[in-house]
Amino acid sequence: MKDFRDRVVSVTGGGSGIGRAVAIRLAGDGARLAIADIDAERAQETATVCNSLGAECRPYELDVANRHAFQDYRNRVLADFGSISMVVNNAGVALGADVVDMEWIDFEWLMGINFWGVVNGTKLFLPDLIDSGDGHVVNVSSVFGLMAIPSQSAYNASKFAVRGFTEALRQEMRINRLPVGVTCVHPGGVRTNIVRDARGVGTMGDQKKIVAGFDRIALTTPDGAADSIIKGVRRNKPRVLIGPDALGFDVITRAVGPRYQDLNAPLARLGFAIGRRYGLVNYNI
To answer: pTM, whole model, 2 decimals?
Structure first.
């Protein structure tokens, strides 16, 4: 997809962060936008900005984990806009906990949003994207869909799942010669609300310090991430790596394969020791 003018695009998690930045970038390119977010107020704020740029944009309140709600959302988007050309399945949440300590309900909450939200957004809209004659699916994974990290097992599971699902989908579209491009996005640290809204952060230490620390080490802005995603769609790239940290994760896993796990362990211990020293975490690894 080279031109977004008058194309209808759905963006989940569009109320903030990468989703909002992508929506604003597409509004500037003349797209018509459906902004979905579980926080209706945030979705409205994004829609207001996009409308101020001259774009047709509508906000929707949506829990992406709820398949029936997502079906209703799909129906409303088609009723409001008449068609759909691209979906950006961006909504995501975080959870910090070791496997032994993790609550089942938190694990299910994260998988419902991070994985099933992507599946719902892809599968429900896919026939419409095919009918458009020039559709595109953008599914947002993570650098943690390239490499596993201690205390991030649930997040890793969801983002590895998104990666596998999306890569298989791209092959299916190509094998069957269907007119839908597919791109999997792997952001590194991006200065968004994901850590502020995460579960389990409070058990790891002072939440304000952890959030401030994340903001300091996050190497990419949402606007920078949005630019990379849009460029990737224009070029129909199968994978978009966002930020130098994402490039580093990719290089490491390619170079050493599964041995990165053995290399990670002492580095993780060092990181947690430093975190305890500065009050960012309060438990041992």
So the answer is: 0.84
